[in-house]
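Quick start: what a row looks like.
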Amino acid sequence: MATRWETRDSVWLEDEGGQFALAASRDIGAVDWRALARGRIPDVAYLLGAALPGACAHGAIFPEGFAFCPQCGAALHNKAAPALPAWWGASNAALPDGAAPLPKYVPQGLAISALPLARALETRKAEPFVGQTERRLPKPPNVPCVFAAADFGFAEQRLLALAYSRAVLQYWDPLAAAWQLLSGDGQAADLAFTASAYAWLPTPGGRRGDVALLPSGQGLVRLRIDPIGETYHTELVFAARLASAPGAVLRHIACLYAEDGVALWSARADASEAQTWPCPAGVPEAGWSRPLSYDDCLFWLHEAGQLRWQPGLEPQWLAWPEGWTPRLEFGAVTQSHDGRLWQIGKDAHGYAFLELGRRDGQLERVDGARPGFGKFLFQRGHQVRNDPWNSPRVDDVNKNDALVLPLLENLVPGRDAPSGLVLRIEPFTGTVESAMGGAALNHKTVVEWIGERNVILDEVIGGIASPADCVPFVYDNCLWLHHPKWHEIRGWQLKAMP
């Protein structure tokens, strides 16, 4: 006869031999303990805040709150993990304070982070010293991915990698040092979404296991994970053939969908008070950028034009000026000193930045391609400051034949120039378009931090192909950089980050 133990969050059963089995846990429900691989037990213990054996072997796991083995009195391991900041990538959902939310004057939905990365990384030796990767993770079995690092309501932070083109959700078990594939519970939606650029809206602070609101093959769904049972569950929020990823603004969520043309679906953040808005004829059914939230509006960009929506109003479609073509592959939207948003493009006269959100937007011409986003952009090897059309600041003429591709901007209040993570490729005399085209770039390539002290974090031996496919993220007090063609994810310790 098993003895039943109840903790604040879980129900445990103790057999006659003193072995404990998890029977159920809050927001997860019943647990099939026998199906759990023994190698997963340490990870489960840390997720639940349960105890592991120390000097004795009387049990593989003990309930939360146990400090000593009931049979021999030996001390048990109870790991109290420190709270770590969450990471959600380029999302425009409202984030809790612990995830370092961006202020409203910064466009939401770009690769910009307010985590104190500069303070941690700029303690290293400055260039020309070349650093090395300090930690490594095997790349997820399925790529390309978006990454999220959070506790998802559990006792410790964990890392998820969603391969959105293959509909595979992957969970990193740090104790087993292995990726686990989470399976749908039988009623879960198809997680694949490739119609447009991928983005999700995190839903922290609810039930244990809540992850995000995301696009799927069936429509907009709410994703929940059960890392103990190695499964996931989805709840349908809006059934439709989605044309874009969802965005969030002013406690509203919205996405584009295709049904006899394109329309916009919107609702409150809790999915209540849903409304639909028809879009003008000719609005594309696929190929949209990640949504951007700024100035109380949502923006989606496309090769054919821009769509702007403000809650309570009909969506506005603005075609690009005749002859001018956006260069969406250069990064994303940039911001001028006065707060306006701009997109770089090209016409018969050369490159020019176009003001967004207006039918008669201002045009500012520049003498070359400028990859970047936010306020973090470069022309060749030199950084551009203040307005995106200003002349680049030349600190070293030896960097004229370089290509710098920004990957992540770090918001550091009070700095004169933006800081962040870049790839520096040199010597490079080709076009930015050719660099983004997927061909192998057999040039010297370094991963570099640009800031008050420039730091070369590592050199990429053998060059790189499709550099825009690099994905930076923060997990377990490390800055990581993933590329789908690399066998490992490279990491640098953030020792000074709280």
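That is the whole record. The helical segments are 41-48, 117-121, 432-435. Residues 294 and 337 are 15 Å apart (CA to CA).
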